[in-house]
Amino acid sequence: MVCRVLAALFLFLLAVTGQAAAQEDTPSVETPADAGDDAPAPPLRGLQLIDVDRQNDALSIEDADADTPVTVAPSGQSSVAEIFDEAQLAYATGEFETAFLHARSAASGGHARAATLAGLLHENGQIEEASDAQAVRWYRRAADQNEPVALYRLGRMAEASRGSLLPNEARNYFQRAAQAGNIEAMLAYALILKASPVPQDAPLAMEWAERAASQGNAEAMFQLAQMHDIWARGPQNPAAARQWYLRAAEANHAEAALQAGLMANSGEGGAEDAALAFDLIRQSAEAGFAPAMGQYGLMLHAGGPDRAPDPVLAAEWFAQGAVGGDAESRYLYALALATGDGVDRDLVRSYYWALMAEYEMDGSLSANTDRTRLQAQLENHLSQTEAEQIRSEIAAYRAR
Predict the structure, then answer these.
(1) pLDDT tens readout for residues 321-338
(2) What angle do CA 87, 92, 93 make, to 5 degrees?
């Protein structure tokens, strides 16, 4: 994330005592949430389900191997396209084994998107005998016909070294998929070009990112904004960055909303607009983006021309950001607990969150000197037993 945060909107006086106060009455925030499992592969693009009313009785499809083409449709079907329609319907209703039978049959009759669907079912592990090797075989069958989604999925599998593919193969697959019109592949190809040390790849990265962004892809808009904003080989154009952040925010990209809001708050890349900044940062926080939660809390605490300061609500947002893993939010929540500003004062839990704020979300050490100062002050007021207990909690959490 761009290292752009609001300037401190308020100062606390750390009037601490040696007595721990009662527990705060904000929502429980004792244990930060763990990240969820990796999301499954995205659904196949460009597949339009046929009307259910057009479906006939279930088909009886005999097995067909990916390497043995079938040139005619099974009995009772007029075309492989109709068999593919049945595969789509079965896939949409969760009947994955049936979907695979239909997709395999249509693919063996030369239907490229059916081969892609067969590969997808293998890649996602949605059928009993799923395997990465078979996913690659079916995807390659579709890729031989330049099918964009199959090319894109091969690129993703290559990135992850799945199905005997190698990471260095990803670029070619993404390039081919991008040139065939796949929007996700345009962005993936742009990011590979961005990471390339070859100088000539930098303008191509911008070009492909803009192509994907221009098609309405929110992540592409955000990545293009980042290229304009903080990329060392980018144009360093704050005005363009702000506009693309805004467009991505309009497409509900949470991090882009935060960046656009921070730029509007500071007047970077355009006019200063406090009201717009507040709305955008609130949007990001309400979307669940942890770094925005602390920033939104700061704005709530400070108030504005049309808003009274609200330290209680601010502390609640600090707490949510702290649980979400944002180091700045953790520090702000620790500070609120230490002073009793918006919450019941609790030096023990303040110390917990001050220690938790030592690391950023990416695992790097926080450069927040105020956090270090707060930690030292709290250690002067807690008993050795209390401090050791909290350090043990932190160690157990980080050892997980």
Answers:
(1) 999 999 999 999 999 999
(2) 100
